[in-house]
Amino acid sequence: xxxxxxxxxxxxxxxxxxxxxxxxxxxxxxxxxxxxxxxxxxxxxxxxxxxxxxxxxxxxxxxxxxxxxxxxxxxxxxxxxxxxxxxxxxxxxxxxxxxxxxxxxxxxxxxxxxxxxxxxxxxxxxxxxxxxxxxxxxxxxxxxxxxxxxxxxxxxxxxxxxxxxxxxxxxxxxxxxxxxxxxxxxxxxxxxxxxxxxxxxxxxxxxxxxxxxxxxxxxxxxxxxxxxxxxxxxxxxxxxxxxxxx
Length: 246
What we know:
Layout: E1 19-20, H1 21-34, H2 37-41, H3 45-60, E2 64-68, E3 71-75, H4 84-100, H5 110-130, H6 132-245
Helix pairs in contact: 3-5, 4-5, 5-6
């Protein structure tokens, strides 16, 4: 089942009345069988030009087709030339719909872009009816404009994705740095504890060394005093032995 496109009443492009595809085709075939070969050859140049214009319009602005209640309906763009009043009305309709749908005047606005696209398609339709070559040239301009916008959209989406990846990488790098900072803080605290412990050990070693030195000095002093005392006793005993002999 074909997808139903936006109804022609909701677009700025002017369309013909919808036609039933099956009945239209059957009527066209019956009419072709009834006509004689001579009558088929006597087609006027104006009819050929109109048919060519219709084909070009259907190429530029494809007909709307949808299925409803098991029947296929088709709605083609209008082939009637636009009058000056219709052009003025188109401008008024554009301004009114911009205001009704609250389109933004500046910046990116999908609503404003949609309405201006419809307006440009209607201008292409009007120009194509008067000059098919000019309409085809405007078609190239429209397609180039669409490709440019799509390229900008793709670039915008890729830049957004790139920015998101960089933001995630930065966030991940930030968490890694925070974890590294926390690890360094823990190492710092551990080293400070080691410094305090080593200072305590150094103070204890200094106290023990001082106590050992004082003990050795006291022992050395006692030994010197003992030796002096022993020396004095030996001198006294020696003098006592020598004195009687005289």
